[in-house]
Please model this.
Amino acid sequence: MTYLIGADAQQAPAGERFRSLLAQGGILAMPGAHNGLAACQARDAGFEALYLSGAAMSAGMGLPDLGLITIEDVCFHIRQVARASGLPVLVDGDTGYGEALNVMHMVRSFEDAGAGAVHLEDQRLPKKCGHLNDKRLVSVEEMAAKIAAARRARRHLYIIARTDAAASEGLDGAVARARAYLAAGADAIFPEALTTADMFRAFASRIDAPLLANMTEFGRTPFFTCEEFASLGYAMMIWPVSSLRVAAKAQQELYATLQAQGSAESLLGRMQTCAELYEAVGYHEFEALDDSIARSVAP
Model:
């Protein structure tokens, strides 16, 4: 149990814990966790770090992924996911919410909320999902300035530069941008929307830095496992929106059933029981802690 009860107060900063996981070698696999309950479930399944997707946060608020959410919206999600799970969280920082000073404000805000890492992308606003067409990019110089600002502001946050250039500038353009972003101070690179194993392998062979791979469903990247991405030269991977998609589909079916049948009884076998929910959120541990505090101060 770690949610604001003191257990997390003894941990090293999240950025340091994120680096320690990477230093273990292999590939750091991070499922998306769109809320605190999902974060607890991912932790209990054995994952050691989590991902917060801008698309998942936006969709959870009933909004499209067009850069509409704010820094404070994201910090609300960071706080619940990081505190509930106790795990370091990689956060989607979109385009940085403005220019260099805005990026610096974002970095400090994310650190204060409990984030361990962030990735920034080189799209223009309004940004698009990385697997859609007609993405517009900022100049290399503008993106490098944002990375330098993030590096200057951070105390411990791990900084990943995402480039969406492969679609419009080809692999050579994506590699050139990645090298410029590393020179500006990025710790790692996220090449978005590569479409073949050969592209992933070729990119990795030309970049001397940790790399992040995105395994999103319904996108341009074919399905690869953790082991396959590791063999292609990648140190990190994410499943950004999978948890939200599964949950949203289940909710859609629930509401349709309620409308059609007037009851959710037919779905009981697909529901988490009260006991399972209490275990996931540590209900009885919180209850016991409350009792112990009450006893300790009772006259």
About this structure: Residues 7-248 form a domain with the TIM Barrel fold (CATH 3.20.20.60).
